[in-house]
Amino acid sequence: MNATFPPKLAKHLAKSVRASRRCYRTRLERCQEKFSEKAVHKLRTETRRILALLSVIEALHFDGTLKKLRKTFKKRLDCFDDLRDTHVQLVFLKPLWSKFPEACDLKKHLCKCEKQLVAKLSREIQTAKSGKLNRGLKEIEKALRQCAKKPPSGRSNAVALTLLGGAFRRVLALRRHIQRDQPKTIHRMRVAFKRFRYTAELLQPFLPRVTPSRLARMKDFQAAAGDIQDVAVLLARLEKDINNGDLEPACVRTLRTELLRHEHNSINAFMERIDELRDFEPEVPIALKPEPASQ
Q1: Among 155, 156, 160, 190, which Cα is nearest to 283's?
Q2: Whole-model pTM?
Q3: pLDDT in tens, 190-214
Q4: Residue of 79, 81, 77 lying closest to 123 (CA atoms)
């Protein structure tokens, strides 16, 4: 472990690792017992939190390698992407089916895809194990607890603020690259903002300004950008399914027009509140440095 690792922060992170590895194991077991939309969502959320936790520890120059552990968790997260998108699309389109009866083929297609994905992933999740991942997290927890035994340094708050500042710089760098006609640029910033929010939640005990109400506003801001991404993914799916011959263009023509209108309005609404981003800036001025905009 890095010799300069603040003991108080190390103790907090050790507790966070312990709680996360236990929660992940529970979420995985429940998903294996009952493969439901709710169970999958909770497992994905916990996986994202672990990835954010590992990123914070890595940023503090943890001596052990976290690359393999992060890669495994990221792979497990990504395997649910298609199912998650299908669930979101079915929920989003539910109030629109009666308005666009000609899109019934799309509804049937989405339901068929959902059924196939559930069957495939429910089989795969049964073989997923948490033992190796749990051991890896235990090793990290042990190292953090060793560091926590050192004399207090009084640097925990400053280090936590530095970590949050780094995550915020990343968000601002991607904010500068946003283009209204390219929803993917908003999505990139949203992904960085989500990591920033998770970092704030994780380090909250050392950040007085990160109150529950502030975190709630962060979540709301993130959700506004998420709405844009959900529609963009659905539009991309329609185009792909039409090109693959799974859907006839006529059955989704009017629905597609409505979705494009919704996307346009959502982007405008989000861009009107984009300056709220500054409300979440850490309490000390951050000297911005050039950072790449790619993920």
Answers
A1: 160
A2: 0.87
A3: 999 999 999 999 999 999 999 999 9
A4: 79
Q: Map tokens 């915020």 to a residue.
A: 168
The CA-atom distances, in angstroms, between 202 and each of 19, 52, 151, 157 are: 12, 8, 23, 13
- Could you say which DSSP state residue 1 is in? -
* C-alpha distances out from residue 67 to 3, 57, 62, 73, 165, Å: 21, 12, 11, 10, 23
- CA distances to 92, 95, 240 from 234, in Å: 10, 15, 10
Q: In whole angstroms, give the CA distance from residue 81 to residue 44.
A: 10
Write out pLDDT tens, residues 66-94.
888 999 999 999 999 999 999 999 999 99
Instruction: Please state, as a whole number, how many other Cβ atoms lie within 10 Å of the Cβ of residue 190.
Output: 22
Contacts of 119 (CB under 8 A, 6+ apart): none
CA–CA distance, 221 with 62 (Å, rounded to integer): 32
d(CA 89, CA 234): 7
